[in-house]
Structure formats: C-alpha cells, structure tokens
TrEMBL record:
Stated family: Belongs to the glycosyl hydrolase 37 family.
Pfam families: Trehalase
Name of the featured protein: Trehalase
Species assigned in the record: Camelina sativa (False flax)
Superkingdom in the source lineage: Eukaryota
Catalytic reactions on record: alpha,alpha-trehalose + H2O = alpha-D-glucose + beta-D-glucose
C-alpha cells in the first residue's frame, strides 16, 4: 500500500457553537463519573438543551462549582444527576411528535402484489411505524437557537429512531422510497424542503440537523430524492425550486478539498470526489471515544489528521469500516481523506444524471446538456480509475499524496479488498443497461463471498466495526438489488429477487422476535440484528422500513411462498 505523504493538517475547520463546546465538558464529566457499565451514550449529553430560565453563563458557573473540587472532572453520580436535572431539558425533548397529515393506516391499493396475508399484515405494521418516527422541531428551537444543539427546520421530519433523534441526510433517501410506497407524498416533500433549507443556509446538506454536524455532509442523495418524488407526483414546482439548490450542492462536492484529479496513462485528467470533513478535533457527539482513540498519537498534527479522518468517515455515512483503514483492522490507521470512494462517485454520477433530467423538464436544454456531458466524463473515470477487469468489480482508489495536486493513476493503488460498495455502480442505468458488464458483475458478486443467508455483507473482514462483516445494511441492499433488477439479464433479475427476499424475511423474523425494525442486520444468519461499532444496536428504523416497503412493492410476495424459514 502506498503511504500518504506527511503533511500538516491545514484543511478547513467550521467552528461549532458555545453550547456544543460546553456540553462536551458535561459529556466528559459523565464519562469519568459513572462506572463503565452504567455510562450513558455520550451523544445524549450533546443533545441536551438549556432549561428556562437559566442561560449558558449561569449554567457554566454552576458546572465550575460542581467540578471545582476535582482535578479529573470526576464528581459523585448523585450530584452530577441533580445538576443535569436542574439545568437541562432532556435529550430529544425539543423534538415533538407530529401526526403526519397524509398518513392513512391502509392506503388504497397498498402493496397489491403482496398476496401472502401474513406478509401483508406485517407490511401494514411497518407502514404504521412512520407515525412513531414523525416529529417536528419545537418552537423554542426557532425562538432561542443558542439554547439548543437541534437546528430549526421549516417542515416536519421522519427521524431514523432511537439515539438518532434528528433528521439525517442520506437516511432520508430510503425513507422517501418507503414514503412513496406508503403514499405519503406531503411528508416526503417536507423532508426534501428541510434538506434544501440546510443547503441554502450552509452551502451543503448537513450530516444531520444538529449544530455539531455543520462541519460535514453525508452521501449526496438530495437530487435522487427530488427525482423519486417527481417520478410519482410530477411536481414541477418542486423541481424548479430544487435545481438552484442542487447546483449549489454540486459545486460543494466538486470543488475545494472534495475535488481530486487522477491522470491516466494517456495523460487524460479524470475529476472525481472524496469525502473531506471540515473538522480536525474529536466529534462532539462522540468526543470521549475519539479522545481515547487518539491517545496513542504523540503530536498534535497526527491527532488532528486522525480526527479529520474520523469525522470524514462519519461524512461517508459508513462509520466505521476497514474500507477507510490503511492497515485494517487497526482503527488508528483510519485514512478516509486518502480514499477516492466508488460509492461517493456513484452518488455524484447519479446527481449529474438527475440534474440533467430535471433541467430538461424545466426546458433548460443547455443546462441539461452540460450535466449529460459531466456524467459522461465521470463514467469514463469509473472505467479508468475504479474498474478492475480481473476482479469484475469497481474498487476504491488510495491517493498517494494529500489529494491537493493531480496525481498519476497506479494499478497498485486500487483497494483489492471486497466490499459491498464495489458493486454500487450497478445502481446506475448506464452500467445496468450494459449486458456484457452486468454479466461480469453478476459473476463477480456471486463469487465474492458477500452474498449471505440474510442479504449482502458490507465486507468480508470481521473487525468489530459496524460497517464490516457480519453486518448488512439497507442502503447497500437496495442499491445493488435495484441495479440488478433494472438490467435485462435473467440471472441478474433472479439474483436481485433472491437477495431482496432474504433481506425481507430476516427483517420479518427480527421484528417478530423483538417487536422492532433494526438499523442493520447480522446477515450471516437469518433473523438476527447487527451489532458492533461505538453504540448499542438501534431500532425504529427509518431506512430499514423504507427498503422493506420498497422491496415488497418491487417484488411482491406470492401467497404460496412462506415468510417463515
């Protein structure tokens, strides 16, 4: 593996708010004061809001008094809990339940191709979960933003669930896929309106609607959300509003530190993108974990680079996985900013195709042609930079230096490890319509070891990280399955349906056992939810619900096929 050149961390940093900085101190005190087994999720402290009538300076003074007798921020648990109860409203109390205006318990024609009654009944239950996840930001967030880490949003939201008590960017795409099946078009449009408001305010869609997420984005799927809604509703007003916002987001991902240039053997420069967080300190929501992870680094620059790579992994949405490690599974070798990822460039290729399509709808032929041309250029880069003919898949590319200068493509810089993301390009029409290519990809996927009893594995490495073996995630299932199903290959279509059925069946079994839908599955076994990573398994769950409903709409469920194993 080619090592990255040594460089100082001089990249951009977006400052956070005084409240977030203070709550990190509260989080650290909690972490040091509670016995290990009793310590709460560190995010729950960063999600607190100030209780009326206290202001931040009053609470900071009270906190200084609380910790003044301790050198190491350790205080008696009872005293700490009294302090939190007196001065803060609980995490999530500034997000209120909202009854969606477009929800009906059994929509007309809902999943008519699901013939199995047991599956239909369960699908209705999954559909009904949207009510549990529907919220609106409280008025106090808009009136007194400095008292909250939650950000104001104009419309109600669908949250993922559990610890994720705010709206998230890339999750929203698969939520919207499900909302389309549930015929909740107003709710779906509201999610897009919220994300567009973030782009208008910050220049990019934030990782999530929190003050501590302003330093990074997430996989760019806003154009895909607009496309999905337009496809069903033919809402041209939404398209017209979206185009200038999408152009702003497109510029963010294709300029500055996100932009990389790879020169091929014939001297042609391919413009691609990477993830790059605007942050080089511990992530506030996981500050205590990041401090601990970085404790082995000897100097400040090494720590800053590590923290940026951790935050950048969070921008990728896949936090964490051996994909981002120079020397897997060693966590301290995280080097996300040195990776040109296959899937990010899939999302950007899709964005180019979407913008071209949306511009054509509004009559902007010249603009549409420009984005068609951009998409052709990126397709060419896929063929040259990512595609590995021998492996029959696309592979992430490791940068040799810091990515600021054009660098020459080297075959040995492709990451030859197998990940689900290597097959993400099949989601794109220009790839899934190429019969010869589909044949190679199907063969490679079949022989990859990724197809497991309950779906597609994220990787083949059991690292303890949640985006690795033995876990599978809804987004990767949906992208690969949808791509295969769109091809003209009988074998690809059959493979798509088989993977979808495995995924649906396992979610059903987990739901029947636990009463909940989970964020991720352990796909090596049927009916087991996933674990690993820095937090406990989460339930709810936005994108999982969305993909279950989308798969059932796509493939149905025959009456004679049992959902039980």
């Amino acid at each position: 593996m080619v090592e990255s050149d040594t460089y100082s961390d001089s990249g951009p940093v977006v400052p956070t708010t005084p409240l977030v900085t203070f709550l990190q101190h509260v989080q650290l005190t909690a972490f040091r004061s509670y016995p290990k087994k009793q310590s709460a999720d560190p995010k729950s402290y960063i999600d607190l809001s100030l209780k009326h009538p206290y202001n931040l300076s009053t609470i900071e003074s009270a906190f200084e008094d609380l910790t003044s007798e301790s050198n190491d921020m350790l205080v008696p648990v009872e005293k700490f809990e009294r302090f939190v109860k007196q001065y803060f409203d609980g995490a999530g109390e500034d997000m209120l339940h909202h009854e969606p205006v477009d929800f009906v318990s059994d929509p007309s024609g809902f999943l008519s191709n699901v013939e199995n009654e047991k599956v239909r009944d369960w699908a209705r239950e999954v559909h009904c979960l949207w009510r549990n996840l529907s919220c609106r930001v409280s008025d106090s967030v808009r009136e007194s933003p400095g008292r909250h880490t939650l950000l104001p949003l104009p419309e109600p939201v669908i949250i993922p669930g559990s610890r994720f008590r705010e709206v998230y960017y890339w999750d929203s795409y698969w939520v919207i896929k499900g909302l389309m099946t549930s015929q909740m078009f107003t709710t779906a449009k509201g999610l897009v309106t919220n994300l567009m408001s973030l782009v208008e305010t910050y220049g990019y869609a934030l990782n999530g609607a929190r003050a501590y997420y302003t330093n990074r984005s997430q996989p760019p799927l806003l154009s895909s959300m607009v496309y999905e809604i337009y496809n069903v509703t033919k809402d041209e007003e939404l398209v017209r509003k979206a185009i200038p916002v999408l152009l702003k987001e497109y510029e963010f991902w294709n300029s500055g530190k996100h932009k990389v240039v790879i020169r091929d053997a014939s001297g042609y420069d391919h413009v691609l993108s990477r993830y790059y967080a605007m942050w080089n300190m511990p992530r506030p929501e996981s500050s205590v974990f990041d401090e601990e992870s970085a404790s082995g680094f000897s100097n400040l620059i090494e720590k800053q680079r590590f923290h940026r790579d951790i935050a950048t992994a969070a921008e990728s949405g896949c936090d964490f996985t051996t994909r981002w490690m120079r020397d897997p599974p060693h966590f301290t070798t995280m080097a996300t900013t040195s990776v040109v990822p296959v899937d990010l460039n899939v999302f950007l290729l899709k964005m180019e195709l979407d913008i071209a399509f949306l511009m054509e709808i509004t009559g902007d032929k010249k603009g549409s042609d420009r984005f068609v041309k951009a998409s052709k250029a990126r397709e060419k880069a896929f063929e040259t930079v990512f595609w590995n003919e021998k492996a029959g898949q696309w592979q992430d590319y490791w940068l040799s230096s810091n990515g600021d200068e054009t660098e020459t493509w080297k075959a040995e810089n492709q990451n030859t490890n197998v990940f689900a993301s290597n097959f993400a390009p099949i989601w794109i029409s220009s790839f899934n319509s190429d019969e010869k290519l589909v044949k190679k990809v199907v063969k490679a996927l079949k022989n990859s070891g990724l197809i497991a009893p309950a779906g597609i594995l994220s990787s083949l490495t059991d690292s303890g990280q949640q985006w690795d073996y033995p876990n599978g995630w809804a987004p990767q299932q949906e992208m690969i399955v949808t791509g295969l199903a769109r091809s003209s290959s009988k074998e690809a279509k059959e493979m798509a349906e088989e993977i979808a059925r495995r995924w649906i069946r396992s979610n059903y079994l987990v739901y029947k056992k636990s009463g909940t839908i989970h964020e991720k599955l352990k796909v090596t076994e049927l009916g087991e939810y996933g674990g690993g990573g820095e937090y406990k398994p989460q339930t709810g769950f936005g994108w999982s619900n969305g993909v279950i409903l989308a798969f059932l709409e796509e493939f149905g469920w025959p009456s004679h096929v049992s959902i039980e194993p």
